[in-house]
Amino acid sequence: MPPERRVIVIGAGLAGSALAVALAARGLAVTVVERRKPLLEPLPDVRGLVLSAASRAVLEDSGLWSRLAPSATPISRIHVAEQGRFGSVQLDAAELGRDALGWACPADLMLREFHAALLAADGVTVHWGTEFVGARAGEHGIEVAIREGDLAGTVEAALLVGADGAESAVRTLAGITLASHDYGQQAIVANIEVARPEAGLAYEYFTPEGPLAMIPRGGARYVSVQCLRETRAEAALALDDGGYAALLEQRFGRRLGAVVAVGPRRAHPLRRQRAERLVAARTVLVGNAANTVHPNGAQGLNLGLRDVATLAALLGPAPDPGEATLLEAYVAGRARDHRLVGGFTHLLAAAYASPLASVRCVRRGALGVLALAAPLRRRLVEGLGGVERLPPFGDGGAAATP
Ligand SMILES: Cc1cc2nc3c(=O)[nH]c(=O)nc-3n(C[C@H](O)[C@H](O)[C@H](O)COP(=O)(O)OP(=O)(O)OC[C@H]3O[C@@H](n4cnc5c(N)ncnc54)[C@H](O)[C@@H]3O)c2cc1C
């Protein structure tokens, strides 16, 4: 057995940072390796990530939610519609007996707060500006090679966690293959201001080009996420502010009034990726290293935070956190959620990209049924909220936020 319950987490993105804080709260010794420097001031990652009820619970458990709560915007209603068609579905938190359907948090602010929590956590050592370069697993532990500039070193631990995102080197070096699908789309994200905002109202608007989401950020501010085919996306990125506002209005209409201000735009190529295995010897994957999904259902990070919750619950009491039976329990615990969310987001992307009349009929029928049936709407919200797919947890030791 390794001399201490040490876990090495590669990647201090949102999933890796949340995991490191959760493991430290459970008494494990954690080393984090991150190639970038800590984010002390928010950088303009303009995404407004929507967190589900399950994610909020996971973050409350490790004390992270209280850092986000002041800047989180509750979403009380989501309007789902298809371009050029009458009829829509309104998901309403009040109708479903909930405080909110989700919470929108600025991505850069989240990362800054998670890095601040890492810096403050007892039991966490972070190597910033350091690259993971390799690993050798033995019977009782794993030796991990890292490099900071010209300096090379090794760290030993019981378990290596790949939280190093979609291009995961941990995954590649562990010999884990990837199933991948390129959507041929880019998501262009921009902070905008609108003339007729509605507090807490988000839109998911499906068009043949790809979905378009409007996420409320309080007052007149919205985050627009516009998915476009690649060539169209390049042309859209080249537009000036006025041209981009006009394009948004042309696709989305003036449901929120005119678009009166547009901030910088950032494009994200869209791919579905699924690691064929989640574990190798003394190695495990979480977050985007395990799964990357289309942002149409706002599910990627939410899925990753449920990876974090499952792994933290399993490793918390374990004398040897790299033991094979624990890793197999993680695989079994995550299989259904990964299948459901990966399948749902992929199906949604495919259904709305298809020009086939039969597919058009089915999706309109589905929206129509959903519009009429409150129990189905409740089921959808519960499913996307993900609470039922959380493991029993809550022994993180950090105070929950009121
Ligand atoms: C347009 C868009 C909108 C989205 N909206 C939502 C939403 O509303 N809700 C939601 O739940 N999800 C959403 N997502 C998904 C979400 O952003 C991701 O799932 C999440 O950010 C992934 O976090 P991660 O920590 O797994 O990976 P990453 O953020 O990629 O972090 C990986 C980290 O590992 C580090 N790293 C990589 N390689 C190495 C190495 N060799 N050595 C050391 N460090 C390394 C990187 O520097 C990085 O810090 C959206 C995604 C997009 C593109």
Topology:
Layout: E1 6-10, H1 14-25, E2 29-34, E3 48-51, H2 53-61, H3 65-68, E4 73-75, E5 77-82, E6 88-92, E7 102-106, H4 107-120, E8 124-128, E9 131-137, E10 142-148, E11 151-157, E12 159-162, H5 169-173, E13 178-194, E14 201-206, E15 212-216, E16 221-229, H6 230-237, H7 241-252, E17 259-275, E18 279-280, E19 283-285, E20 291-292, H8 300-315, H9 324-353, H10 357-372, H11 374-385
Parallel strand pairs: 1-2, 1-12, 2-8, 5-14, 12-19
Antiparallel strand pairs: 3-7, 4-7, 5-6, 9-10, 10-11, 13-16, 13-17, 14-15, 15-16, 17-20, 18-19
Helix pairs in contact: 1-4, 1-8, 2-8, 8-9
The site of flavin-adenine dinucleotide has 33 residues, from α1, β2, β3, β9 and β13.
